[in-house]
Model the fold of this input.
Amino acid sequence: MKKLLLLTLLFPATALADDDSTLSRLLLAHHDAPTRAQIERHVEAPKPRLVAIALDARMFPPLRKRAIAVLAAWPDAEVEATYRTLLARRDEHVMHHVTFAVARAFPEEAPSILTPLMHQTDRELALSAVDALVRVDTAEARSQLDAVVDPSLSATIQAARRRAEKIQRR
Amino acid sequence: MGKIDGDPCIRSDECSGGYCVRRGEFPGGYCTQINCASDAECTRPEGACLQFDNLRFCAGACNPTCRAGYACVEAENGVDVCVPDLEEPPPLDRPTGAACTANNECRGGLCLRHPGWPDGYCTRRNCENVGCNDSPSSECIPPLAETPGVTLSSMCTLTCGDRSDCRAGYACVLLTPGIGVCIPDNADAPPLDAPASYPFDLTCGLASTNGALSIPFTLPPNTTSFAITAVARDGRYLLPRQVTGPQTWDLDGADFRYAETARRLINVAPLHVPLTPLHADRVIAGDYTLEIETASQDACYYLFTEVAPGNLLDINIYYTGVAGYSAATAPNNPDINAMLTKIGTIFATGGISLATVRHFDSPPGVSSANRIIRNFEQIYQLGLTTQNPGPNLGDRFSLNIFIVQEFRVPDSNAIGVSPGAPGVTALHGVRGAGVVMEGAYLGQVFMGPNGEVVQGNEISATILAHEVGHFLGLDHTTEQSGAPDMIPDTPQCSAGQFPDNCPDLGNLMFPFASPDNDALTAGQGYVIGANPVTTE
Done:
C-alpha cells in the first residue's frame, strides 16, 4: 500500500496522448523491437516521444530499453546526447542496453564512449561494453578490443569478446 | 523455380527439382532433387539418381558436355550425367571446407586436423581482413566449434542451406533462416540417464544410415493427440523431415512447422500433434514412420499418446541468480505468489488449471553464469541443467521455467524466450528444456504507457505465460506481418486495425505485451490440453 501511495505522488496525473499508447504498444512487442519504419507507419513524429520514454526513469524498463534500441535508427546529435546522459546516470535498468545502441548508431564515436566502460570495476558493465564494441567494424574499435585481450586484462573479458564475436554472426 | 537439374544455382527456390546443392564439391551450386528413390524421379530433363557421399540426388544430363568442375559420366541407366569432377585438386588448391591432411593442400593455407574436424577441414585463419572469396560458398566467421591447438580469431567456413550441403561428419548449423555453415556434427551430448531409469519407454541405440533415420511408431485407436520426440544421445544434429503413414506430413512446412525448433535445439526434435483444432481429424490410428535427417549412431525416441485432453499444468521454477528469490523462500514469497496467481487466472480462461508448482535453485555455478543472459545459446543450454522433478511418470509431465535476473542480449530485445514452439515435453536435462524470463521486475512498480501503474508481478506473469503458451504450441494470434495463427476461434487483426484496434487485443498470445492481454480462447485451450505435458 505504501508503494502505491508513493507512486501516486511521483507520477503525473496527465495521461500521455493516444499516440503514446500506440508507440508504447509497439515498443512492447514480445520478441523483437520495432523498426523505425514500423513506428513511423503508426505514430507521427515519434522521435521526441522515444527520447522522453528512454530518459524517464519511472517508466517500465523494457519500454525504455526498446526506446533506446529504436532510437539508434536516428543517429543524430540529440540521440547521442540522450545516450551519453543515460550512461552518465549509471541507470542500472538501461545502461547496458545503451552501450549496444551506441555501437549500432555511432560506430565512429563508439570506441571513445565505450572504451572507458570496458575498464570499469563494474564487471557486468565492462562485459556489456565489450559485447557492444565487438559489433563495431572499425579499426579503432578493433584496436581497443585488442587492448582488452591483452593478457594482463581479465580472462573473463577475453571470453566475452570471443563469445560476442561468435554470437554476432548467428 | 525453373532451372533444370545440374544448372548452377544459389538458392533452392531457383531449381525445378527444389534443391540447390552448395557443398564444396559442387562448384557454382547444382540444381537437383535430393533423396530421390529411383532414376524415374529424375526427369528435369532425363537424368539419374546417384549417391554422392551422404547425398542422394538427381544428376542432370550432359548437354552435351558439362560446365567447369564437372565431368560427364555414363550412369547405370545409360544416361550421360554431369557429376562433380572428383579428380584430386592440386596441392594448395582445395577450397574451404574440403577434406585435407596437411596445410599445403588447402587454398587458405590451413588444414584443421584435430579429430573433432572429421577428415580434416580446409580453411584460412584470421580472414577478417582478407576475406574468403577464393573459395565458393565460403564466409569469414569466428570459429563455431573448438579448434584445439590452433588459435583463430576467425576462419573461412563453408556455407550451406541444409545438411546435404555438408560432407559426412558435418552439420549445417543455421546462422539465419536458410543460411548456415558446415561445422563438425558433434554438439554437446545431452546427459540422459540410462533408458531403463525412465518411467516411460525411451528407446535408444538407433543408428542412422546414409544420413537418415526412420522411426516407426503406432497410434492406437481413439488417440486424440500425441507427442514423439527424438534425441541424439551422441549429440548429433537431428532434423525431422516428414511423417509418413496414413497421411504424409511435411515437418518443415506451414502446417507442421517442427523443423524450425529442431534447428535451434540441434540434437532434440520435439513433435506434438495437433497444434490446432483444425488438425484434430488428422490424428488417425495406424502405423507411421518419422523420417529424420541425422548422422546420429545413438538416437533415442519416446512416444506419448492421449485419448483425452489434459487440463492440469505442473511447472518447475528454477531460480537462476535472480536477486532476492530462492526455492526455499519462494512458496511464501508474495511476489512469486502474485505472479503465479495471475498465471493461473490466465490459463483458467482456456480451461487449464495450474496444478503443482515445484521450486528449485539452479546450481550456484549455473546461476552465476546465467543470471545475466547475454546470448540465446545460454537459453538453450540452460535446459541441460534441469533435473527430473520426481520419480514418477506424472512428475515428468511438467514444464520448466528459469527466472534469471535480466536479458542483456545485444542483438535482441526479447523480454522472455521459449526455446521451442512447441518445446520438448517430459524430457528434462536436454537443450531447450524450459522457458526463460527476466525476474528483474518482480516486486517492483513502474509507470506504464498512459501514466498508469504497472505492477511488476503482473506484467512478469503475462510475459511468462505468453512464453509458456509458445512452449505448449501456441502461435501469436496475429503476427506483426499480418499472418494469422491456425486456431479458428482466435480473432485476427487486419492491417487497418493494427495495432490499437485489433480484435485480438486482450489475448495472451497477442504479439505485444500488456498485463491486460490475459485471456485464452477455447481453441487455444484445446491446443494446450492436447499437449501431453498437461494431464488429467
Summary: Chain B has seven helices and 29 strands. The first strand of chain B starts at residue 19 and ends at 21. The CA atoms of residues 2 and 284 of chain B lie 37 Å apart. Chain B has a mean pLDDT of 88.
